[in-house]
């Protein structure tokens, strides 16, 4: 008699369960490497969840692109577009608070007050923003 159902080996089931308990997190980067032609396919997780261990290679079309399970250097910073001018101003305030001493030194060199320097910086940020500029921050 032929078995209609393929029984998965215990280690495969264990691996699947383990993966579901530790889904990849939103924002992480993963790469699949083809064991046949060495093509790399890179993914960004837009949502947290579970993905296959192996996928079809985009180059040779063989089902041999294996997941590195995010065990690669993850990006530590991102480029983003602020939602509005309020956010641009907040970015400037944060940058100022982060490097306050450097800005104070800059004021002394230019012979201007902190308020004027902040105004100058904000104007530059606004020009950058209006020209389609992105801002950077640490990845969350
Ligand atoms: Zn391939």
Short structural summary:
By secondary structure, the protein is α+β, with helices and mostly antiparallel strands. The protein is built from four helices and six strands. Bound molecules: zinc ion.
Description:
This protein has helices at residues 10-21, 85-98, 100-110, 114-130, and strands spanning 29-34, 40-44, 54-55, 65-67, 77-80, 135-138. The protein has one domain (24-138). A hairpin with a 5-residue loop joins strand 1 (29-34) and strand 2 (40-44). It contains 4 helices and 6 strands. It starts with 9 loop residues before the first helix and ends with a strand. Helix 2 (85-98) packs across helix 4. It has a 4-stranded antiparallel beta sheet with strand order 2-1-4-3, with no helix packed on it. A two-stranded antiparallel ribbon has the order 5-6. The chain has 140 residues and is of the alpha+beta class. Helix content is 39%, strand content 17%. The structure holds zinc ion. Zinc ion is lined by residues 34, 36-37, 39, 57, 59-60, 62, 64.
Distance between the termini: 56 Å
In sequence order, what are the helices and strands, one letter per element?
A: HEEEEEHHHE
Biggest sheet: strands, sense, closure?
4 strands, antiparallel
Q: List low-confidence stretches.
A: 1-5
The total beta strand count reads 6
Lateral strand order in the biggest sheet: 2-1-4-3
Q: On the 0-100 scale, what is the average pLDDT?
A: 87
Count of domains: 1
What is the helix tally?
4
Question: What structural class should be given to the helix and strand makeup?
Answer: alpha+beta
Strand content: 15-25%
The distinct bound ligands, ions and cofactors come out as: zinc ion
Helix content: 25-40%
The gyration radius over C-alpha positions equals 25 Å
Shape: elongated
